[in-house]
Amino acid sequence: MGKNREALQDEWKQLNEKPVDLFEWRVDYFENIRDVDLIVDIAKEMHQETKRPLLFTKRSEEEGGQAVSFKENEVVQLYESVIESNAVHGVDIELRQPEKNTLHLIDQARNQEIDVILSYHNFTETPSAQQLEEKICEAVELGADVAKIAVMPQSKTDVITLLQVTEKMSRTISIPLISMAMGTNGIMTRLAGGVFGSALTFASGAQSSAPGQVPVEDVEQVLRILRKNMGS
Ligand SMILES: O=C1C[C@@](O)(C(=O)O)C[C@@H](O)[C@@H]1O
C-alpha cells in the first residue's frame, strides 16, 4: 500500500520476514499511478525481492479503493502494461468493469499465463445469497481463474449468509473462490473461511487495506491450529 517506491520497499522488507504466501500490491495507493514504466519496474523489483507471487490490484473508489481520478481506459492501459511485463502472477479485475475490457484483459492475461481474479466488493451491506451467487457465477462465466466476493455484514446473520454462499459455491463452481466478510463481525471469516471453502485470506502487513483485516502473524497462528487439528 506504499505511496512511493521507498515506502513499498520498507513494507516488503518488513513483510519478507513474515509468513506470507503472496503479496498484493494495491496500486491505487501509489502516488505516481500514471507512471506505468515506473510501476512495472517496481513490480519486477518487488517480485525479485519478495520471491513470492505478486497480485496486482487497482481498487476503485466505489469498491473501497483510494480516490484516483482514473478513466476506464486508463485502468485497462495500466493492466495491459503490467500483464505484458510479466512482472506479476495475478491481477484483480473488478466485475464492475465493462465486460469488453474484462474479456480483453483476461485474453491478454491468458497469453502471459497470468491468473485473473474477478472480484466484487460491497462496503455497505451484504446482498442476499442469491445476489452473491449471481456475482460468483458472473465471474465464472466471464472466464475468471478465481472468483472473489467481499461484503460488509450488518449482523451475524449476514456473516452466516456469506459463509453459506461460500460453502455451497466452492463445491459447485470449477474455479477457486475467495470470500470474506469485512469489519469486526466478519473477522472469523478471515480466520476460518477456509473451513467453508474460501481459497485464500487477506491479512494486514504494514497497514490494513480493508476493515477487519487481522495481522498476518495472528492469521498464521489460527491457520496452523486449524490445519493441525483438522488434518488438512
Ligand atoms: O479484495 C481484497 C480483499 C480486501 O478487500 C479484504 O477485505 O481483505 C482487501 C483488498 O486489498 C483485496 O484486494
Name of the level-1 CATH class of the largest domain: Alpha Beta
How do the SSEs run, as a string of H and E?
HEHEHEHEHEHEHH
* Helical residue percent band: 40-55%
The fraction of residues assigned to DSSP E strands is 5-15%
What number is the mean pLDDT? Answer: 95
SS-derived structural category: alpha/beta
Number of distinct helices: 8
Overall form: globular
**Quantity of strands, as a count:** 6
| The CATH H-level homologous superfamily of the largest domain | Aldolase class I
Lateral strand order in the biggest sheet: 1-2-3-4-5-6
Indicate the low-confidence ranges by residue numbers.
none
Q: How would you describe this protein?
A:
The chain folds into two domains: 1-121, TIM Barrel, CATH 3.20.20.70; 123-232, Alpha-Beta Barrel (TIM Barrel). It has a six-stranded parallel beta sheet. The chain is an alpha/beta fold. The longest helix is centred in the last third of the chain and has 17 residues, at 156-172. The radius of gyration is 17 Å and the shape is globular. The chain has eight helices and six strands; from the N terminus they run H-E-H-E-H-E-H-E-H-E-H-E-H-H. The protein has helices spanning 5-16, 36-50, 72-85, 99-111, 129-142, 156-172, 187-192, 216-230, and strands spanning 23-26, 54-57, 90-94, 115-122, 146-151, 177-181. The structure holds 1,3,4-trihydroxy-5-OXO-cyclohexanecarboxylic acid. 1,3,4-trihydroxy-5-OXO-cyclohexanecarboxylic acid (DQA) is lined by residues 24, 26, 57, 59, 64, 92, 119, 121, 148, 150, 180, 182, 202, 209-210, 213.
